[in-house]
Description:
Elements: H1 2-20, E1 27-37, E2 41-50, E3 53-62, H2 69-92, E4 110-114, E5 119-120, H3 121-130, H4 139-157, E6 160-164, H5 167-182, H6 188-201, E7 208-214, E8 223-225, E9 230-232, E10 239-243, H7 245-257, H8 266-280, H9 284-304, H10 313-335
Antiparallel strand pairs: 1-2, 2-3, 3-4, 5-8, 6-7, 7-10, 8-9
Helix pairs in contact: 4-8, 5-6, 5-9, 6-9, 6-10, 7-8, 7-9, 9-10
Amino acid sequence: MAEHILDQIVAELRESATSLYPNRGELRNIRVVGHTPKSDHFIYDLVADFANGAERMALKIYRSGKGSPQAGRNQASAEYANLERVYEAFTEHSLPGVPRPLGNFGTLGAVVTEKIQGVPLQSMMMKAALLPGYDDNKSLREAAVKAGEWLRNFHKLTAGPTQVFDPRQLLAELENICLNCRGEGLDNEAIQMILTGAQNSLAKARKAIPSSAVLKDFTPLSIVVTENGVGVCDYGKMSNDGISFNDAATFLASVEALEKYPFCNRDITGRVQESFLQAYGAGVADQAILRVLKMRALLSMFAQGRGVKESAVRKKVMWATLMKRFIQQAASRSLAPAA
């Protein structure tokens, strides 16, 4: 099914390529040079060869799954609408980092864009951790700064009215997640430290917080570092209205979660988080809320578990032990009374 859709889209791109890239001259060929299967979609890398050079394209085809093909078409149409909105807003302000959509292929359950070429921020962090001398203490900081600036621009350009902030609701959500994590092995002492620290952080929280579109998947793996900055390619989970800080908290939690790997130390993750926060423009009051939202995101990761089969008991126990130790350390740093 996906191969049939791929052929159809490539045929349509052959018809429109010269108008999409008028300065490249005659189109000679469109090649498929990469294929990555995901849980709910396929990713294809395309190259359009012209008389005057080549252009890279990215094609996402949603899987139909057990549901009807209409579900994939709805997802693709929603992502296209999100992408078009963000691309127009960034282009209007001459800001880079959002791929240009190359047509509306929602009826085929697909999204086609220009390909942003670069390296995922997470890959840079892993290389810095594993290869001595790879990072000169500047490249990661610069990438984190660009990520913070990109997210700040995204939230500014899609901003909505401020929302009333209810710290009691957030504390209730945090307590509920903590109780779920108890089944994974998080002990009462750690839970009490998390809840007490969260109460202290939110004691003088702001009455209102900013709202905007929210990506819901702004992580080091989804951020592409280019020669001129960073880019974000996936808008499939984007919501048009939400609490802006949730994106920043997701990023911070995803960065800190990399510490569960022994080779990725606190120096690397701390450097990235600090630079990101400064560029994002989070003040003292904002950071207090972000600490709690980050802990909620980390606990949600812990509660979801490793996702292995129940028969793989040894792996499940190892995962729980590792994550329990990591969560306790993260809570001690972020939410302990001394902080």
